[in-house]
Write a structure and sequence with these properties.
The structure is a homodimer.
Chain A: E1 8-12, H1 17-28, E2 32-39, H2 46-57, E3 62-67, H3 90-95, H4 105-119, E4 124-126, H5 142-155, H6 157-162, E5 167-169, H7 177-186, H8 211-223
Chain lengths: ~230, ~230
């Protein structure tokens, strides 16, 4: 009997609701998980704690945390001293790109994933972007992801020599937050251990009012399941 | 009379022959220069010293050096403890992707340039890639650059809200090394202050035999001008 090597997948993980669900999905598809997180000058460390827990929960072969120098570039409420907006409706969120947008963040994160994919090697990269509840970020749209994948296959040995194609998987891209939650629960995700809030209390409790909290709360409500998030 | 703001250009700079020539070209075109260099675990610091000198020489408004965590990813003779190949012919260089290739390096560097372009804002990014004397790197080909530019315009506010298009300028892409040198000399570039060698002596003298030195030497020879490089 020939034992095939288990295919490797790099999963971009923020320890949030979306990326944790993505990791559960990649695991169910049988991939060996290589978890990739970024220390990018977030104003709090709860994301990285949650990401480490997620990697452990899904038996990641490796959990790599890279330092990414976004503070020197600036331009976002998530890395700079700009107030995080609170209490906005989803219509307000969709109306324009918010100040919590981190310039070119997904492009930078996917570029590092691509580098790691070449080295491992791995052909599959998973990212939890979402085009429905996407909160107005341009780099969460399907046409952006398709363009990145095309570029990635021209950028690398994989696309050039080996005949393998790099694939960017976005299993959440067409799902509502409620659908994401229901699929994650079916896969055993413990959402009490995930962190989504942009502006948590010093003890890690979620603010409940930033865009990320609002989308998460609305998702649990629409899914008709109890929200296990600890709010301040 | 209306005084127009001077257009800003981000120039990726390694302090080498190619990127220094690109900066001279961007300057001649009238752009205000924003120089961007990376500390990516190169085995030596001479590149960064040369990049700082280049930025000063061309009156850069800012010279930003970002730390990029490529060593944790590995996979290259330029960041890992792998021998740099010496004495190869250009035919040998072109035959396959060399061990000095840094996985997805240009994608990571251009992603950071894109982030900075959004924040400044700037629409123009210059990079000194070269498809003729390119030493076998997949991310130096015109089709790769076109794909990155397309992706960049879907990734960002610029491509989404403001109606400005991000442009990736590659003025060297079709030039031979000799042509690059002749154009740079016409623009006043002092190549004795640039650094190309992958494996310099402790005092910064070039090895003269790595792929980068070989292409540089050949370029000066074919241009018929004296090579001001200090070899060990």
């Amino acid at each position: 009997m020939v034992i095939q090597d288990q295919a490797k997948a790099i999963v971009l993980s923020s320890g949030g609701l979306d990326s944790t669900t993505v990791m559960a999905m990649a695991r169910r598809e049988g991939y060996a998980i290589y978890s990739l997180s970024f220390n990018y000058g977030q104003r709090h460390a709860f994301e990285l704690q949650a990401a480490a827990h997620t990697a452990e929960m899904f038996g990641a072969v490796r959990h790599l945390v890279l330092d990414v120098d976004l503070r020197k570039i600036g331009g976002s409420a998530l890395t700079d001293d700009i107030a995080v907006p609170k209490g906005r409706s989803t219509a307000e969120m969709a109306a324009r790109i918010p100040v919590t947008y981190v310039p070119a963040r997904n492009t930078i994160f996917l570029a590092y994933a691509l580098a790691w994919a070449e080295v491992l090697p791995a052909a599959d990269i998973f990212i939890g972007v979402n085009a429905l509840d996407y909160s107005g970020y341009p780099d969460c749209r399907p046409e952006y992801i398709a363009a990145f994948e095309h570029m990635a296959n021209l950028a690398t040995r994989a696309g050039t020599e080996a005949g393998t194609r790099i694939r960017i998987h976005t299993p959440l891209i067409r799902l509502s937050k409620a659908e994401i939650i229901l699929q994650g629960l079916a896969l055993g995700v413990d959402y009490s251990k995930t962190h989504s809030c942009y502006d948590p209390a010093p003890d890690g409790a979620a603010c409940g009012r930033c865009d990320s909290c609002a989308l998460r709360r609305k998702g649990f409500g629409e899914a008709g399941v109890a929200d296990p998030t600890r709010y301040k």
